[in-house]
Amino acid sequence: MTNTEISNNNPEKELTIDKSISDDKTKQTSKKNTTQNKKITPKNNKSTKSFDEISDEIFRDLVSKKDSLVKEIKELETKKNELEQDIESNFKGQSDNIAKRVKGFQEYLTGALVNLSQNVEKLELVSQPIIVKPSPLDEKKQDNGTDNVIKVPALSETFKPDEEIIKSCFSSFTEQPDFYAEPWKLRRSLNSSDIEIMDDWFFNMGGRGSLESRGSRQKNALLSAGLISILGELYGDQFQTLILASQPERLGEWRRILQDSLGLTRDDFGPNSGIVLFERPEGVIERADRLEANEELPFIIIDAAETSVEIPILQFPLWVAFAGSDNEIYEDLELN
């Protein structure tokens, strides 16, 4: 017997069978849904828990920061109050001291003014004339002063007492050069024209004046070496030579010639040595003033290339300025 036959013969049974089948399907789908829901729900729980934990941590951090800020604000308020109290107390104390001092000074001034006014009232406005009679001793001194005439020695007589020493040096300069002489002694020889110029400078000019250039810096430096040698015989270590030349090349030439002519070393050229080199006249004047203040004698030498002489240099007792010709100055400028 087939299914059609059964369905045709028994329709109620067929309905019951279909219902059972549908119920079974619904149960299976409901079971699937429940299992899926069970799988999904724990995931949601995990996510909600992590978010809650994060929010709790953030909240705790905010609360802790708030507490720390509140503490800092309280500490700052206390410090502010302490500073205000200190300022008020110090300012009040200082103001009180200042007020006391001002008041005391005011009282002192008032007392001094009162005393001054009282003393002024006691003064005599009409002064008595004072008659001073000359002393007989003063009259005698005045009479003696009119008779005495101050005699100032001429410049030409400055070196008269040392004429013998100077003349002996002149005679030695004309002899054969002594290349092994002591330092500060002239180791070269001079001709008769040089001796005449030096004689005129000592005994007619009195050791201060201008000389005509010998034609070159080498000859002028050699003549100056003779003057330095003679002054060394007369004054020893009590004088210092100051050389003025406005360019270092010229000063270097002066140093080399004097070093060779007088048997000197580099140590003899310096601020505390026997010869000092200067590029500006202000330095020469300042150094000469210091030497005279220390009771020493400056000897100033001015190079022929210098076209003018500062007036303060002329006040010193020993100086020589070489006057160069126009051609000599021009050639010197061309070389430098």
From TrEMBL:
Provide ranges: composition bias, Low complexity: 31-45
Chain positions covered by the region annotation Disordered: 1-49
Q: Which InterPro entries match?
A: DUF3086
Extract the coiled-coil ranges from the record: 59-93
Q: What are the UniProt keywords, alphabetically? A: Coiled coil
Tell me the leader sequence span. Answer: none
The reply on keyword Coiled coil is yes
Compositionally biased spans, kind Basic and acidic residues: 11-27
Where is composition skewed (Polar residues) in this entry?
1-10
Pfam families registered for this protein in UniProt: DUF3086 (PF11285)
Name by which UniProt lists this protein: DUF3086 domain-containing protein
Q: Which organism is it from?
A: Prochlorococcus marinus str. MIT 9201
